[in-house]
Design a protein that fits this description.
The protein is an all-alpha fold. The chain folds into three domains: about 1-125 and about 220-230, no CATH class; about 240-395, no CATH class; about 415-480, no CATH class. The chain has helices at about 1-20, 25-45, 60-70, 75-95, 100-120, 120-135, 140-170, 170-185, 190-220, 240-265, 275-280, 285-305, 310-340, 345-370, 375-390, 395-410, 420-425, 430-435, 440-460, 470-480. The longest helix is centred in the first third of the chain and has 32 residues, at about 140-170. The radius of gyration is 30 Å and the shape is flat. The chain starts with a helix and ends in a 5-residue tail after the last helix.
């Protein structure tokens, strides 16, 4: 237990050093690697790793933490905080459990979160026991030790202060280095700074309990996460007739819908009198949602032990085929709309979601036919890989590049939504936005130049600490160096 508490304390101090009053940067990947090393050391020491293959999830976890250092996307940074936490929880579940059913997976996630809070009391109890043992065994030794420390301080402090003051007066560079340290130390005892110091200490203590209780919950035998609870198993039981009826009716609707797609959208896309962009605008979000519902319905039909008939399999495969047509239709509609009106965050996210759903088609099809596929692992793997690709695609730069390229294709006819581009992208897109200085429209050039000058001024005012180091910020400063 002492190893867990030491690891929890070191991590809580490290997070304070890296994140206190700091913007996320290289600090995130440093902390994540330190956390994983500490966690895996404890898991190995207490022999809790049952499945070493689960440790492959450390790769996407570290890659996602690297994005804080490489890019400057505030939206993905917020999302990644939760995704990294979820991936760590999933890694804990698969590393400690040899087998996990789809039905039990979400229950285990709740057990990790709830068990962490529940284990705080155990951490407190162990701290009390450790303190009591020390008090009983070394009461006399403590008194003698305190006397020795006091005598040492009486002799040492005057000498140290005299030598330090002499060095300060002897060398101006030495004095300048330590002048800031002395100022910071004295500022700690001012009213406002002293309150911040207390708050920082409180946060360190809070994170110590959170980290320690998390490790206790995952590692210790009697924790909520490791308790054997037969009631956790949830079985999906729906009558065979109900599933077949739902799948049959859905397939009839999808057949009609597919016929309409081939006759109205796919076959008429080259007709000049057909406003395909306006038509495409109708429904790609709805179609994306329908495809998701279909995949969930098929999975429920397969998980239901009562549904083993060939008719159910045939209906599931038909639903899967129609789902693929719906996904292609939604993808094609989005492409037509984006081609006419340009790229945005939402439109790019839709592409990734649709592509992710399309990747599910093959493993689900094989799963329906009884192939030995762990559909839960498959789902986690596909979603994780696609999410990592999304993070490393540099979304803001991609949005700016596609919109600028589209504008330069035909500057007389194509318009560029500068308001959206300048308000919804950050320094990741600076190099692409800078290209608009070559536009023919003087209003576009003027607005872009004003924006670039504002960004240059903001970046010059920022005093970045080493914890906040960000490659995108460094590159943006280089790009804006010659903007006057």
């Amino acid at each position: 237990m002492s190893y867990i508490l030491i690891c929890g304390m070191l991590l809580s101090i490290l997070q304070s050093i890296l994140f206190w009053k700091k913007e996320p940067g290289i600090s995130v990947v440093i902390f994540v690697i330190a956390f994983l090393l500490g966690f895996l050391y404890l898991m190995n020491k207490y022999k809790k790793i049952e499945n070493k293959k689960a440790l492959i999830l450390t790769v996407p976890i570290i890659l996602l933490s690297l994005t804080y250092f490489i890019y400057h996307n505030s939206i993905l940074q917020i999302m990644n905080t939760f995704v990294i936490l979820i991936l760590i929880i999933i890694m804990c579940i698969y590393a400690t459990k040899l087998k996990i059913k789809v039905q039990d997976f979400f229950v285990e996630i709740i057990n990790v979160l709830a068990g962490t809070l529940e284990s705080i009391s155990e951490v407190i109890d162990n701290l009390k026991k450790m303190l009591k043992k020390k008090e009983k065994s070394s009461e006399s030794e403590k008194i003698e030790g305190m006397k020795k420390i006091f005598r040492s301080l009486v002799y040492a402090i005057p000498i140290i202060v005299i030598v330090f003051m002499l060095l300060m007066s002897a060398d101006s560079i030495f004095a300048n280095i330590f002048e800031g340290v002395i100022r910071e130390f004295t500022n700690l005892f001012m009213a406002e700074n002293f309150i911040l110091l207390l708050l920082r200490i409180c946060l360190i203590i809070l994170f110590f309990f959170l980290f320690s209780s998390f490790f206790v919950n995952i590692i210790m035998k009697d924790s909520l996460f490791n308790s054997e609870n037969e009631e956790k198993i949830i079985e999906v039981k729906i009558e065979n007739m109900t599933i077949n009826m739902i799948l049959t009716i859905l397939n009839i609707f999808y057949l009609i819908f597919s016929i309409i797609q081939f006759t109205s959208l796919f076959s008429r896309m080259n007709m000049s009198d057909f406003d395909y962009a306006t038509y495409a605008r109708q429904g790609f979000f709805q179609l994306m949602m329908i495809s998701f519902i279909n995949i969930v319905t098929i999975m429920i039909a397969k998980l239901n032990k009562e549904n083993t008939s060939n008719y159910t399999k045939v209906m599931s495969i038909l639903t899967l085929i129609f789902t693929m047509i719906i996904l292609i239709s939604a993808f094609f509609r989005m492409y037509l709309y984006e081609k006419a009106y340009g790229y945005t965050y939402l439109r790019l996210f839709v592409y990734y979601i649709l592509a992710t759903e399309l990747l599910f088609i093959l493993p689900i099809g094989l799963w329906i036919f009884g192939k030995k596929i762990d559909i839960l692992k498959c789902t986690i793997g596909i979603v994780t890989i696609m999410y990592v690709i999304l993070n490393f695609s540099n979304i803001e730069s991609t949005i700016a590049k596609r919109n600028v390229d589209r504008y330069f294709e035909n500057q007389e006819e194509n318009e560029i939504d500068l308001t959206y581009l300048l308000k919804n992208t950050d320094i990741d897109a600076i190099s692409e936005i800078k290209r608009l200085l070559n536009a023919k429209d003087p209003n576009v050039v003027r607005r872009v130049k004003e924006y670039l000058l504002e960004e240059k001024e903001k970046l010059q005012e920022i005093n970045t600490s080493w914890q906040e180091t960000n490659l995108s910020e460094i590159n943006a400063k280089k790009e804006l160096m010659n903007i006057n």
